[in-house]
Design goal:
Helices cover 54% and strands 12% of the residues. β4, α3 and β5 form a beta-alpha-beta unit.
Length: 309
């Protein structure tokens, strides 16, 4: 079901007095390195056959040349470019057309899919079919204009995205660490109610995640070992860790040694990710003051606020 919007109403009002043959739409189906486009008019006729072009400056000039050539031929009163949102691949082309002063809109993939179904190709996914479907969507006046952001907002959105990716990576890595620790040093993490938030646990995981070595050290020397690395550890906690080492069930030697190495390597990786998260927070704090009302940009799925990003 197609729903009217202010942008749709504005477009339709703008072309109301223009002959349908002189109202052109240029749907573009974007891929990773190249794209396909065609030119159609509001009579639903394809007037420039589908063609492919590279997603670079040369390719954009080819796209504009084909569209402008036919627009000049028919004395077009309107030429609208429509680009289906495709992850991040479409953004460069949208920005290039928008800054060049072209009438360009982004198309929701769900709307394009619905249009493909209406032309009888819902299950047929080809670039040509997508372009034809997008042409129908453009003729209906659908699509939204590119989001206009200030430099501060664009910078903030980029750093929010970077932080979101690193938070996701940290979650995956922590889960992997817990699995490997269970093989390298069973029940070590059971000694800590707050898990990786505890500095002494991190030292053990990064440097001495081996029950046999912990047993040889004993509680007092284990505490000294951790303390020498700048982390305070209570004697009772050291004794608890040593007792866990004594009760640990060992997996085959090769698997255990590999798991111990994986834990040490992943702990180093975790420190790098957390350092990147700290840098994201620092950069977001810097740019926040330059954004409207001094607040963080709202991006679905990130859960970022001005108070807790």
């Amino acid at each position: 079901m197609l729903v009217s919007s202010p942008s749709q109403a504005e477009y339709m009002a703008r072309i109301r007095c223009v002959d349908r043959e002189r109202c052109l739409v240029v749907p573009v189906d974007v891929g990773k390195r190249s794209a396909m486009a065609l030119v159609a008019d509001h009579c639903h006729e394809v007037v420039v056959d589908p063609f492919t072009f590279d997603l670079n400056e040369t390719g954009v000039l080819e796209l504009l040349a084909k569209a402008d050539s036919f627009a000049e031929f028919v004395g077009a009163g309107s030429v609208r470019f429509g680009i289906e949102s495709a992850g991040h691949y479409h953004r460069g082309l949208v920005t290039r057309l928008d800054t060049a002063g072209r009438d360009v809109v982004e198309l929701n993939p769900a709307i394009v899919k619905d249009a493909r179904g209406r032309i009888g190709a819902r299950r047929v996914k080809t670039d040509v079919q997508d372009c034809l479907a997008m042409a129908e969507v453009l003729i209906d006046g659908l699509g939204h204009t590119p989001t206009q952001r200030s430099l501060a907002m664009s910078t903030q959105a980029a750093w929010v995205g970077q932080r979101r990716r690193k938070v996701e990576a940290r979650g995956v890595l922590v889960r992997q660490l817990h699995a490997q620790v269970d093989l390298a040093f069973p029940h070590l993490t059971d000694c800590y109610s707050h898990g990786l938030d505890m500095a002494s646990l991190r030292v053990i995981m990064a440097h001495i995640c081996d029950p046999a070595r912990v047993i040889r050290l004993g509680p007092e020397r284990l505490r000294e070992y951790v303390t020498k690395r700048g982390v305070r550890m209570w004697t009772l906690k050291a004794a608890q860790v040593v007792e866990a080492a004594r009760l640990a069930l060992a997996v085959p030697e090769g698997q255990r040694q590999a798991a111990q190495e994986f834990v040490a390597r992943d702990m180093a990786l975790l420190e790098m990710i957390e350092a990147e998260l700290s840098e994201c927070d620092r950069r977001l704090a810097q740019v926040m003051a330059d954004t409207p009302a001094g607040v963080l940009v709202s991006i679905p799925g990130v859960g970022v606020t001005a108070a807790s990003y």
